Fold this protein.
Amino acid sequence: MSDDHRLRVALAQMAPALGDRQRNLEAHRGWIGKAKATGAQLLVFPELSLTGYFLKDLVPEVAITRDGPEMQELASLSGDLDLVVGAVLEEPDHRYFNASVYLSRGELRHIHRKVYLPTYGMFDEQRYLASGDRFRSFPTGYGRAGILICEDIWHLSTAYILSLQGVDLIICPSASPGRGVSTDERLGTAESYALLCRTYAQFFTTFFLYCNRVGYEDGANFWGGSMIIGPNGDLIQQEEDADEALVTATLNLGDVRHERLSNPLLRDEKLELTINELRRVWHERTREPY
């Protein structure tokens, strides 16, 4: 890949309608049209963009399957640009997952099932959804990518595992409601997410796309703040308002190579040592008498 290979990305900071899959699918078509008009090659939608977030007992009604007509229709929309779409995915054994799917050139290329389902405060995902069990990178036309969904990134091992697989881009669809206020009157959640995402980008020398939703749902306000971050941790583009918006930027993919040459943290990572130490900690935990 040449040092000046460029990728035009777009984040659809949208407000999905709770439980109305058909209405949300129509909205996706509109955002895809807007993204195409900007020359985007990759369009990312927020977490559960097809369904809304606080679904509770609506989960079985709005779920789609990997071979169903809804997935086929979504795939057909990915002929001209790659898509990351959030949905409830029903597996053949009738477990339901909070999933983000990657579609490209008319095909389903990757599924990430959210691993960490929050069950604190206003959140109760684990009551209605099953947990994913893997973090896998996958090839795209612009390098390797990985997907983490919202709460996943609050566990440091998740991005670390993806980084060890050589990802050039981490994509994080999110449905984060505002919680707390920081000392300068910004939402505490927004400040924390910005710090976390920029840290991952810099330490793992990878592009980071954070796409959060907006709107009100079940009394909660989703704050937006979608951002595109470079592999040096610099903020390339962000939508600071909690309004619907298309956030776009052109990435120079050669920046990943440049950062890893000047900041070779991944080269120097001692994977075998990490595995051995984790194994030791695990055995010590299992030997605890209480």
